[in-house]
Design a protein that fits this description.
By secondary structure, this protein is an all-alpha fold. The chain has ten helices and no strands.
């Protein structure tokens, strides 16, 4: 309860204030709907929104899982050699700077309309934080511990599994926290172009001037991002609480 009250108080206050402002006419309802109107839209379109939420959740989760596996693997490869890192890491940075909205039409050409395009969009948007944070963690291993492993004749694989990867786990989880939210954003952007899911609901509701439905879909997308973020926080607490300062006492 102590952790729940601080964010709930401003949420309730802002909701009540917004409801009053819209009902009093201070804010036009066609620009920002009243929270009660958003709630009605959630209830009236619950079947449509639930189906869209399921599709967006599936695409975001698959894209996030692929970015996690691929990003960690790429970071391990880059950390294995300074030459490989200097040769290929700039391309990872360049790949991240390309706006997803600009290449989303290409994804439709390559993968067609549907789930594949949405997953690819979520994957592309969320992979770079995993690569960057994992690489930083792997390269930040205590030199004294690396020398100790080398002194005892530990192989590169043993050093990676028993030293470098555990030491990099806090940074990896930080990258996953960022990537979890980006995966949802990528999925929504992909759905704008490739159809299906909450992104399609937002696009259709926009053309119908259903601002309340737009806000309802955006709210569900935000809750999905929060759920993924909370899942990573739970994993972080379970894996780091016993030995890392960032989770001790949480």
């Amino acid at each position: 309860m102590k952790k729940s009250w601080p964010p709930l108080i401003p949420f309730v206050a802002i909701t009540l204030a917004l409801e009053w402002m819209v009902r009093s006419g201070a804010v036009p309802s066609y620009l920002v709907p009243a929270p009660s109107a958003v709630l009605r839209a959630l209830l009236d379109s619950r079947d449509e929104l639930a189906a869209a939420m399921a599709k967006t959740s599936a695409a975001a989760l698959v894209g996030f899982a692929l970015s996690t596996i691929t990003g960690v693997a790429i970071a391990v490869l880059l950390s294995s050699s300074r030459g490989i890192q200097r040769a290929f890491y700039p391309y990872a940075v360049f790949f991240q700077t390309v706006p997803i909205i600009a290449i989303a039409p290409l994804l439709v050409i390559w993968f067609g309309y549907g789930m594949k395009t949405v997953i690819a969009s979520a994957f592309i948007v969320s992979i770079f934080p995993v690569i960057a944070n994992t690489l930083t963690g792997l390269l930040s291993t205590d030199p004294a511990l690396r020398d100790l492993f080398r002194l005892y004749g530990a192989s590169a694989t043993v050093t990676l599994v028993k030293l470098r990867f555990p030491a990099a786990l806090p940074q990896i989880l930080t990258g996953l926290r960022v990537a979890s939210g980006l995966a949802v954003i990528g999925a929504i952007v992909g759905e704008f172009i490739g159809g299906q899911g909450l992104g399609s609901v937002v696009d259709v509701a926009r053309t119908q001037q259903r601002v309340d439905k737009v806000f309802a879909a955006v709210l569900l997308a935000s809750l999905l991002g929060l759920a993924l973020f909370g899942l990573i926080n739970l994993i972080s607490a379970l894996t780091l609480r016993r030995w890392h300062a960032s989770e001790q006492g949480s």
